[in-house]
Amino acid sequence: MILPFVVAGVVLGSLYALSGVGMLVLYRTTGVLNFGYGALGAMSAMLAWQFVELRMQPVLAYVLGIIVATALSLLFGFLAGPFLATVTTLTKATATLGLALILLGVMLFAWNDKARTLRLATDTMGFNLGTRITLTQIICLALATLIVVGTSIYLRRSPTGTSMRALASDRELASMLGIRVRRVELLAWAVSGALGGISGILLSSQTRLEPVFLTFIVIPVLAAVVVGRFQSLVGTLIGGLVIGVVQAVASAFPATSPFSNATPFVVATIVILYLQRRKVVTIEVAR
Amino acid sequence: MSAPVRTTTVHQRSSRVAAWNPAKLFSPRNIVVLVILVAVLAFAPTALGAYWTRIFTVCTIFSIAAAGIALLYGRLGLVSLGQVSLIGVGGWITLRVGHATSLPFEVVLIIAAVGTGAIGVLVGLPALRLSGLNLAIVTLMLAGAFEVIFTVTGFPNGGDGFLGRAEGGVLQQPLARPALGTSDPDYFRYVIIVATLMFLVIGLHLSNRPGRAWAAIRQSEAGALAAGIGTVRYRLWALAVVSATTGVAGGLLAGNAGLLDPISFKAPASILLFATVLIGGAFSLLGALIAGFLSQGLPPLLNALGVDGNLIFVLLGVGMIQAITTAPQGIAGQLQGLGRLIRVRVAGVRETRRTGRTPR
Amino acid sequence: MTGTLVVEDLTVVYGGVKPLNDVSLTFERDVCGLIGPNGAGKTTFFNVLSGFAVPAAGTLTFDGDDLLAMNAAKRARWGMRRTFQQEQVIHGLSAWDNVRLTAEHTGGRRSAVDDAIAFVELEALDRPGSELSMLERRLVEIAKTVVGAPKLVLLDEPGAGLDQAETERLIGLIRRIPGEFGALVILVDHDMDLVSTVCGTTAVLDFGRVIGIGGTADVLASAAVRSAYLGTADVEEPA
Q1: What's the mean per-residue pLDDT of chain A?
Q2: Are C10 and C115 in contact (CB under 8 A)?
Q3: Model pTM?
Q4: Cys-Cys link to C208, which of A36, B205, B236, C21 (CB 3.0-4.6 A)?
């Protein structure tokens, strides 16, 4: 009976993709590959759980969690953005490891790493289609598809989207063209944080509500972004789905099950090596 | 992105004097280091007490791995986020070979160094073709993958089979410590001496031909190629040296308790260690010592002060961002700056103003 | 006596454009110049020669040695030296170690490093690269090109960022390279004064093609070359 695993994999994969899109929007606008992205989602999920425990209206709790993730992302972009604009892509990414550590530390301090469960109201609704599919799973899938398509259209059509793409190709030129670079960048931090928050809550309902686990979900998400070659939203969606399905199916068999979590590494490494098969030495001077 | 790119420079000591000069061995700096070393070996275990001696043993072991990270980051500009996994590999080999044979511990350490070096090169062979960001991603994923593998295989504890696991009712058996370091204070001294040897290996590489080639590669791949440097070969050599010394660190860690737990080799540990290297300073071996202390000595210290151990993540996260943005030379750089200042004051020599310096 | 570089039917294709189109030329004595308007293909030509770009067609031979059979690092060990428009002095190494680096990877001896340093009359030997003045950096670059038995030295705007007096010091050095080290020197520069003082032979590239080659004075005076330069106002008349 492999069908339940495939379904779970598709849902998980769509969430990887949803996170990946948030990561990609930020990377393409600011050049920052946010290693702290998983931690933002984890924070949002942990807060949502905490608020529900405190008997808050679930929907309100989720929204609050997402708002906090957005605010944290925005705050980091606001404080670190001006510095990050002046350094290499590698240094930008390295700095976000600091963000990941800080958020992780705060979460472990506040909640420790015990396994909890976040039950969404939509978990109990669903229907049978050979295997049981919950409304949450439908929402995950629909949301991921919607956001990938929506973001693609937004980036291509809207003035802000155009600015973001301009920034991605040349920051200085964009500022000379009168684009308010700082505002567009902060917008990207906010959007990315919100997407991280949403996917964090959904991921915690589909997997485990543990700060460390959710923080390191950044690994499969990165893998999805790598499959999208750091630029294609559709590629990221496909990458997320493939990784999710392979991982879930691998966990169905006793022989491969323990290693299923190594899937993102395998997929991303293959893709990276394939993309780099022809190495060109660029003559540039870094100083 | 065409914004101006900031880089940090590290100044390698020039070695224009004839290659082997006995006078160089007794430079004031080396004498100070030697005196400190002897003092540590003689008095530290007594001064520290049993508990902190054990802690500093582990700190010293991790500083070897930190020196490897520092070499890759400071000299080659490579970010490797999976170095704690390599400690695990070295530890696994040590336990496996140690249980299977009756070879002296030192020989087992050498086998662990060679084995880990080989695995590091094997993994790095494809990864070294990657640009900076991709290498960081791949090594992070590697850390995740190794976490999975270690959890599945566990570490050898005297059982049978390839994995050497004793499960169920069978009593697990720790690996015996080396004959030269059976007690905690002796093992501390043993670790200090091995670590000094590893630092020497790394230091000699840095101040000689490989170090110069690495400096060239870090600054500009094109410039290095134009100077006739086989860039792939030198990168692989760096990886081999770093993996081998990190493997020795793993061996020492395995020898310390005789057993290893997969829980010590999870991905966050690698990132924490990387953060401590940035904070301690990636451009000197002093930085690696500081990093070793920050990663393994700070948590028990916070504990002793009654601070929640999880706050170490926050502390190191903030420290890492601070190091990246304002102190690229790390704590070691600041200490060395201070030392230089004091020396200048004491000698009463005013730094001569350097002429002909171009504004940039 | 310097060797002879023979370039035949060299074509480089980047996507849809051809930065070099069917270039054939021979450089055979002392210091040769390569000039042309911006985007003419001069740097691409250097990149192909030194192994940083792969041509779509054509051959490169130097005294019968097939250059294309070697990669960039191998060519350096063979005797190719090049400088880049942006100087490549390594910040973390002292001036002396900068020169030594090239020597130890191209089979140069320790004495060759001393000779090269003495040749450029560099004094700031122990200062790190990051603290050198622009002139000192350019001198280090020249010193790097003459260690370890060079056969072919490519200089890409070696005098960029220098003032008149400094440029003259550099000119003096460049002229002495063929005689003292036996290497053929090819010089790319926008400074027509520099080219006409130093180069015996000069080739002119325009839109990836050779539009003139010969004695420097004749080439600079020819009608085709003048018309190629008409659009670019910043070029001085040759003296």
Answers
A1: 84
A2: no
A3: 0.84
A4: C21
- To the nearest whole Å, the CA of A88 is away from the closest chain C CA by 18
Query: What's phi and psi for C59, nearest 5 deg?
Result: -130, 150
pLDDT at residue B189, rounded to an integer = 92
Residue A273's nearest CA partner among B236, B130, B235, B125 is B130
Would the pLDDT of B188 be above 80? Answer: yes
With CB atoms and an 8 Å threshold, state whether C91 touches A283: no
Q: Are strands C65-66 and C209-215 parallel, antiparallel or unpaired?
A: unpaired
**Spatial CB neighbours of C120, under 8 Å, sequence gap ≥ 6:** C139, C140, C142, C143, C173
The answer on pLDDT for B22 being more than 60 is: no
Q: Alpha-carbon distance B144 to A270, whole Å?
A: 16
C27 forms beta bridges with: C5
* Residues of chain A by 3-state class (helix, strand, coil), percent to 5: 75, 5, 20
Token pair 């606008």 in the structure block, residue: A29
Spatial separation of the C-alpha atoms in residues A13 and B198, rounded to whole Å: 44
User: Contacts of residue B223 in chain A, CB cutoff 8 Å?
Assistant: 285
Q: CB contact, 8 Å: B4 with chain C? A: no
* Helices and strands of chain A, counted as H and E runs: 12, 2
Q: What is the pLDDT of residues B56-68, one digit of tens each?
A: 999 999 999 999 9
- For residue A257, the chain B residue with the least C-alpha distance is B152
Chain C nearest CA to B34, separation (Å) = 26
Q: Residue C98: is it exposed, middle or buried by C-beta count within 10 angstroms (0-12/13-18/19+)? A: buried
B interface test, pick of C48, C75, C93, C140 with most B CB neighbours within 10 Å: C93
Which tokens hold the place of A101? 């550590």
Contact assignment for A219 to B267 by CB distance below 8 Å? yes
DSSP B160-174: BTTTTB--TTSPP-P
Helix, strand or coil, per DSSP, at residue C147: coil
Q: What is the mean pLDDT of residues C140-167?
A: 88
